[in-house]
Amino acid sequence: MHTLRSISRPPRRRSALAGTALTLAVATVLTACGGGGADSARQSSADTRAKNAPSATPVTDPLVATFDGGLHILDGDTLEVASTIELPGFNRVNPAGDADHVIVSTDTGFRVLDATAQTFTGITYPGAEPGHVVRHAGRTALFTDGTGEVAVFDPADLGAGERPESRTYTSAAPHHGVAVELSNGELLSTLGTEEERTGALVLDRDNREIARAENCPGVHGEAAARGEAVAVGCEDGVLLYRDGEFTKVDAPDAYGRIGNQSGSDESPVLLGDYKTDPDAELERPTRISLIDTEKATLRLVDLGTSYSFRSLGRGPHGEALVLGTDGALHVIDPESGDVTQRIPVVGEWEEPLDWQEARPTLFVRGHTAYVSEPGKSALHAVDLDTGRKTTSVTLPDRTNELSGVVSGH
Question: Is the separation of the CB atoms in 29 and 262 below 8 Å?
Fold first, then answer.
């Protein structure tokens, strides 16, 4: 058993207005300034409602970008801002798994945003420190770090406007974790406490434990490869689960942390980050890991540039994608490890020390890679088939996270 190092401890969320009650569609920002009285408060509330009112025209293949104070909903074709929703605090966004919805992690829990209609639904999953959102085999799993609760549902049911019937599971102890439901109904979920994370277990359809592995110190992140091999990252490699069994793939270094992974149904090889300094305030690695889930092997590739945890993605043909701090999108053959293309997208940048601070972010959907450039309040679209930047726009704010729906109408 390993003691969890500080570099891998679950980061605490911060809030610009912690404890502020949110309405379903808008957030009313309270002010300490005097002199306005009730009339000013009513006018401020009315202005907020008007700004956040959904457009009559649905957004095409929407993207959602966060900024300090809210969300921008963008047209997926033009990248133009369709509407803005005010939402205080540090918010995170992930695809819900259908053509309309995005999951927003807020200070009070998960909330479901109808990005096509540009409004929050009434569907919420309350809980402290909402964490990972995982889509796999037509199911979406939410993990709430502060409670250890897992909720799994069919994203197709979100369109009904009511909270879908969900499978639930509560971890033995709250921790910064992740869960994924497989196509056969098995549920893989991480093991740990707030002080130490150790591995993962697997439950059958009736939530009875059928497998367990506790040889994955600092377990973090999840990805699935072709053939439904699932991996979670460790401080010394990765832990694979396939065909009912766990297999450990060791890193070549005593401390070789793979905390973020990206998978593809088109490839048996997973893309991961790779860090080797347990004492670094912020390690800026230049190597990535490629994990062959069929051979249970791990290969390291040096890109010659650093990257961040928001830099990893997969292309439509299974190619591995890494957005480097050199400003280029690096395209990697996952089988050979060769860098086949470097596509210039943004200017050179440096990863900030605070993980919640904005930095260029990669979001891939289909044959298009979307890359934000907060330093210029810009957003770019890259055609992965041609390697050309097709669209660039300037946004009203310096955006942070970037996501969107996963399939178009």
Answer: no
Please name the residue that has the structure tokens 């104070």.
69
Extract the tokens encoding 126.
Answer: 């309350």
pLDDT at 323 over 60: yes
Bridge partners of 336?
Answer: none
Three-state SS sequence of 183-252? CCCCEEEEEECCCCEEEEEEECCCCCEEEEECCCCCCEEEEEECCCEEEEEECEEEEEEECCEEEEEECC
pLDDT at 407: 77
Contact between residue 94 and residue 103 where contact means Cβ atoms under 8 Å apart = yes
Strands (E), 43-196: 63-67, 70-74, 81-86, 92-95, 101-106, 109-114, 119-126, 130-136, 139-144, 149-153, 167-170, 179-181, 187-192
Residue in 292, 356, 303 with CA at minimum distance from that of residue 331: 303
> Could you tell me how far CA 42 lies from the centroid of its own chain?
36
Partners of 168 in the beta sheet? 151
Using the predicted structure, report yes or no on whether residue 210 has a pLDDT greater than 90: yes
pLDDT for the residue 129 = 97
